Amino acid sequence: MQNDTISVNGRTYHRPKQPLVVVCVDGSEPGGAGSDGGGYIERAIETGKAPFFAAIREKATFSYADCVVPSFTNPNNLSIVTGVPPSVHGICGNFYYDTESDSEVMMNDPALLRAPTILAGLNQAGSDVAVITAKDKLRRLLGVGLDIAGGRAVCFSSEHADKATVAENGIDGVVEKIGMPVPDVYSAELSEFVFAAGVYLMETRRPDVMYLSTTDYIQHKHAPGTPVANAFYAMMDRYLSKLDEMGAVIALTADHGMKGKQTGAAPNVIYLEPVLQAAGVENFRVILPITDPYVVHHGALGGYATVYLESQQDFQTAAAALSAVPGVETVLTQADACAQFGLPPDRVGDLVVVSTFDHVLGSSPEKHDLSGLTEPLRSHGGISEQRVPFIVNRPLDTSTDACRNFDIFNYSLNHAQEKRA
User: Is 0.85 topped by the overall pTM?
Assistant: First the structure.
């Protein structure tokens, strides 16, 4: 007899009685106080072309939550699927400095993950699981522990859909099955492929649990309420409506919000290396954890950075110099940042720098290629992008006050009512 609950990272989850689809909409700035032109979903609802979201706001759960800081993709996706902060699962950026090997590396190696995922726990307990990501950088991390070899799990990305095999991904012939070509990595279609594949799998395999993770290319390029953004969310609305019609519980959140970072002809960038050099600080290293292989739409400029200092004698000088720069919201010690944001100390520098809502942080001008920024810069990473949507197409039997985006599995598995309102 199978157990009705599982325990993962100290939290208990009921196994789903109906198919569960958890969606992480990358960069989905919400409405409410401090929003940039209103929220993406809210503005799309205003057009009348997002009836699924409109119905949820009227009859089900349409709320907000806080994401993990740094408000980047990898830390938050892994927090969502583990149900815990980076201090537990270890993924604290898209990119980090490995002090043991003295190298700067991408945080996409499964060996860096320090905690099991809820997806793997459900899969190992007998639930069929499907994971579809837009970019392949997340696919390996999210697929840790899934029983692909046993035929109980599917895990692939839009980016490499044409390379999917049964042995590695649990499925092949994806492009032919979905009926869409492999999209360009810098396109709305990369995310649309995720939703189209999710509908296909629900129609053909009906997995017990599905995790869909998009890319924020559109949100980096287009503000809430713009025609392109509205069209993107209308597309999403259509696919989610199909999943809803098939009886799925749909739980949607985001990895981070998105804010405009440009008030003139150029982005509002604070380059940290020149600031430290001018203050007389030597032998330091600036790490920008937003960095990943896909920087055309943000130029590796985000709202969070960490600084490694070779000499602790430079600590006060560096902190004072950085704190004095207009556009810097806060400079924290490693201990304070890890305590405030729930981060692993061994993967964070001596100082953490967070910019204000309208500024971004860079290393030095010559290290950033901004030629791909054809629209005013929009980015994320700081405290100002921490607020995200928290939406379930069912009423809940508990309040969502003070919830986090990584509570989404808890709310959808343990508190969502079985029938739609």
Answer: yes
The count of structural domains within the chain is 2
Q: Quick check: 1 pLDDT over 60?
A: no
For the segment 169-186, what is each residue's pLDDT rounded down to a tens digit?
Answer: 999 999 999 999 999 999
Angle, helices 227-245/189-204, rounded to nearest 10 degrees: 10
Is 88 within a domain? yes
Q: For residues 212 and 72, state if they share a domain.
A: yes
d(CA 271, CA 189): 33
Give the residue among 291, 305, 290, 382 at the shortest CA–CA distance from 350: 305
Whether residue 320 is found in the same domain as residue 409: no
Question: Can you tell me which residue has the tokens 């907000």?
Answer: 64
Smallest Cα–Cα separation from 24: which of 138, 109, 116, 115?
A: 138
* Statement: residue 262 has pLDDT above 60: yes
Q: Of 120, 163, 123, 155, nearest to 138 (Cα)?
A: 155
Contact between 77 and 255 under an 8 Å Cβ cutoff? The reply is yes
